[in-house]
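BUG: 3D viewer hangs when loading the predicted structure for this chain

Environment: internal workstation, default settings.
Expected: structure renders.
Actual: progress bar stalls at 90%.

Input used:
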Amino acid sequence: MNCGGLGVRRLGEFNVSLLGKWCWRLLGEKDGLWYRVLRARYGEVGGRIQEGGSDSSVWWRTICNMREGVGSGVGNWFDDNIRQVVGNGRNTFVWTDNWLGGPPLKLQFSCMYELSVHKECTVEDMARLQGRSCEIGGSTLCLK
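Structure tokens produced before the viewer hung:
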């Protein structure tokens, strides 16, 4: 007997997987329409679209919570099951991305992060600075 419907028995898990798909798309499709719409609406800091606080939609807050491992009921499964490949460094942020296998550098070296004037610098940008002088915390530093 066919009663119709989607045939989904575990709606909670199905919802978590769909939200995870959105998290994945927002990581990999930064030139996509939805990324640009959300960036225009909520702003972007350190390569990540901001949550937006109580003014944001329930859908967007839920995605942000999943991205942070909060409230999904399954821990931080999204971050635990993805990895970032640096490649050319164009999409990897030096300070805020977890690209060296531990916590982000802004947490490991918080004093250096606070002094840096390049807080939203990608790995590619930092490589371009190599051999040039740059200002960090009012002092000039020559990178070699």
